[in-house]
Amino acid sequence: MIIGAHGQIARVVTRLLLEHADVALTLYLRRAQRLQSLATHPRVTLVEGDARDVAQLSAAMPGQDLVYANLSGDMASQAKAIVAAMQHTGLHRLVFISAMGIYAEVPGEKYRHILDPYRDSAAIVEASGLEYTLLRPAWLNDEDIAAYGLTRKGEPFKAAHEVVSRRSVAEIVRAICLDPALHVGESLGVHRQ
């Protein structure tokens, strides 16, 4: 299940996952008509809903193996709702996109309040008891290449001034979707390599 399925990384993840014939996707977004081109795909279910609505999220979660959240805006409220819906439905595996700098791990940078929504939502995910992976990418571009390195929470973020591709982040998400045991309980910085 992809929450925030119209997001730029999410659309790349969707394309990559649909290359696998055994993958079926539930694409959850505020305005489903934005992904109308996928409405007739036999392995895609479009669900229109608000990522802050626990009841709507809970209704879409039965039968899912994993939730990947790609959000913006009121991220703390969205994280709370997603965690509550997952706990309510018994779903355990979550991949959540955040941002570099939430732990002051970027040498020489102080991002201050601009990262508060990412910090707050990451704290909610980390305290959830779910099997989560947080991804904290550097600035992003649309190059169709996968060239990335990873840092763990507590390590300095590498190459913070380099731009990493959305494709790189999407490849990590795809790998986790195909092998949900990867990176459980980790918060990973994603930098250009």
Fraction of residues in helix: 25-40%
Name the overall outline: globular
**Beta fraction:** 15-25%
Extended strand count: 10
Largest sheet strand order = 3-2-1-4-5-6-10-8
Low-confidence stretches are none
Taking the alpha carbons of the first and last residues, their distance comes to 29 Å
On the 0 to 100 scale, the average pLDDT is 96
Structural class: alpha/beta
Radius of gyration: 16 Å
Give helix and strand order, one letter per element, not per position: EHEEHEHEHEEEEHE
Main β sheet profile: 8 strands, mixed
By DSSP (H or I, 4+ residues per run), the number of helices equals 5
Would you kindly provide a written description of the structure presented here, covering whatever features stand out?
The protein is an alpha/beta fold and 193 residues long. It has an 8-stranded mixed sheet, sandwiched between helices. A two-stranded parallel ribbon has the order 7-9. The chain contains 5 helices and 10 strands. 40% of the residues are buried. It has helices at residues 8-17, 54-60, 75-89, 116-126, 166-178; strands at 2-3, 25-29, 44-48, 67-69, 93-97, 131-137, 140-141, 148-152, 164-165, 186-192. 29% of the residues lie in helices and 22% in strands.
